[in-house]
Amino acid sequence: MAIIVQKFGGTSLADAEKIRRAAERVIKAVKSGFSVVVVASARGRQTDELIADALELNPNPPRREMDQLLSTGEQQSVSLFAMALDAAGYDAISFTGGQIQMMTDSVHTKARIKSIGAERIQKQLDEGKIVLVAGFQGIDENGNVTTLGRGGSDTTAVALAAALRTQECEIYTDVDGIHTTDPRIFKNAAKMEQVSFDEMLEMASLGAGVMHPRAIEFGKKYGIKIHVRSSIKEEDGTIITHEVPQMEDIVVSGATVQKNMAKIDLVNVDNKPGNAAKIFASLAKARVVVNDIMQTEVSGEKANLSFLIGISDLTAAKDAIEQIKSEINCEGIFIRDDIAEISVVGVGMRTHYGVAERMFGALAKAKVNIDSITTSEIRISCVVNKNQADEALRVVSTAFELDKPAEQRAKS
Ligand code: ADP
Ligand code: ASP
Ligand code: MG
User: Fold this and answer.
1) β strands within 253-378, DSSP E
2) Residue 270 Cα, ligand 2 centroid: separation in angstroms?
3) Which residues surround ligand 3, an ion (CB under 5 A)?
4) What is the edge-to-edge ordering of all strands in the sheet holding 372-376?
5) Helices 46-57 + 63-87 axis angle, to 10
């Protein structure tokens, strides 16, 4: 029997009624002949509440204990979901990540999946059961519970689809699909029918919280068609899939804002081979994920180096820099934790010009100052003041007509 993985996000499971509605979706798939594996997130805002509980007791909680705590949210969801299915007359069994051998590395709070033992799930499916797997969590080789980073249940779902060798993965959420930008900020953002893995990976990495970036990486690697859709409405949502030639006709597919960032500037570092390597080795040792590195030579002797990090890594990054500051002869460290990054993304940028001009022009018109700019082949990002972030996203979205379906937008 064909297997389908269906993932339900937290808002889609917030109360008993919503769990029942989600269960109906699962039952519908069973009735159409699928063996169903359900991945569930913690209900409502439970993860946020657990984090707040932890911080009340300890401003810097041990990461291992955070994982022990946060994983309980998803565990509750799957057992309640299984109870709802049982009440509807369907045989269902729930598992934690550890119980299905969702093996990860040991980087607590942002672990990466290494392997999945699909046998236990397959056996239960073969017995005709609906299998529910707690999202967002795994175990390391020493049996410690780990979590995959905020939004990580998407990754559990796509990784399970890969492990079970099925191409069908549905992500049920509180929006009706992937929009050109966050509809909570730009109300008229158009829904996309499809988006390429590469664009979605950029968008997810740059702040489009609707999908966890690692989920897209798995999807691309294993060729999983990911269908992001509403848990309330019946209509199709957005398919994330391989790039097709028509996608290049669209200049900008989407825009994003990332608000939980900090920028570190290292001023007048000795300009000699090996220094950049030392800085990033120290950050890597502290397990800080670094984005958007910029280095400029000030003179033959000195260089400035800047980079962006997630704000939750700021303390670790500061400590890491302090440790090598004298070794690299850094004369000043500037930290900005009041920034946001606005990005536009599109595979069409490879073949169209004028994108940068249009983006910078829109920001200038709205009197939004640009702190720094970075680009890749398919994106342009500007760091701006956090208090202007939403406005910046709106003006950029308007400039690229992201309220219209792709085929109705101007080509240049
Ligand atoms: P879930 O709990 O289902 O995982 P999330 O809150 O993680 O849901 O993701 C859905 C939210 O992502 C939406 O409510 C929306 O505000 C936000 N979002 C950000 N960018 C986008 C986008 N480009 N398209 C759709 N939703 C987006
Ligand atoms: N519950 C986790 C979070 O809120 C994981 C998820 O929802 O995907 O980040
Ligand atoms: Mg999510």
Assistant:
1) 254-270, 290-297, 302-310, 332-345, 372-376
2) 42
3) 9, 151
4) 290-297, 302-310, 254-270, 332-345, 379-385, 372-376
5) 150
Which of the ligands is closest to the CA of residue 185? Answer: 1
pLDDT in tens, 330-363: 999 999 999 999 999 998 888 888 899 999 999 9
Going by alpha carbons, the residue nearest to atom 23 of ligand 1 is: 181
CB 110 within 8 A of CB 148: yes
Distance between Cα 173 and ligand 3 center (Å) = 8
**Which tokens in the block code for residue 27?**
């039952």
- How remote is the CA of residue 10 from the centroid of ligand 2, in Å? 7
Cβ-Cβ contacts under 8 Å for 405 (sequence gap 6 or more): 190
Report how far Cα 31 is from the mean position of its chain's Cα atoms: 32
What does pTM read for this prediction?
0.92
Centre of ligand 1 from the C-alpha of residue 182, in Å: 7
Write down the residue that tokens 């850094």 correspond to: 330
Around Cβ 332, how many Cβ atoms within 10 Å?
A: 11
147 and 139 Cβ atoms separated by less than 8 Å: no
Read off the pLDDT of residues 205-236 as tens digits, 9 standing for 90 and up. 999 999 999 999 999 999 999 999 999 999 99
Token digits of residue 256: 């994003």
Task: Determine which residue's CA is closest to atom 2 belonging to ligand 1.
Answer: 9
Ligand located closest to 135 CA: 2
Ligand 2 within 6 A of 41 CB?
yes
Query: How many of the other CB atoms lie within 10 Å of CB of 321?
Result: 20
Q: Between helices 314-324 and 275-285, what is the axis angle to 10°?
A: 140
338 Ramachandran zone, left/alpha/beta (phi>0; psi -120 to 50): alpha
Determine which residue's CA is closest to atom 4 belonging to ligand 1.
9
Q: Which residue carries 């020493």 as its tokens? A: 142
Cα–Cα distance, 194 to 342 (Å, whole number): 22
Cα atoms found within 13 Å of the Cα of residue 13, Cβ hemisphere only: 30
Residue 227 φ/ψ, nearest 5 degrees? -110, 110
Q: In what order do the strands lie in the sheet with 145-147?
A: 113-116, 102-104, 137-139, 145-147
The CA distance from 186 to 170, in Å, is: 25
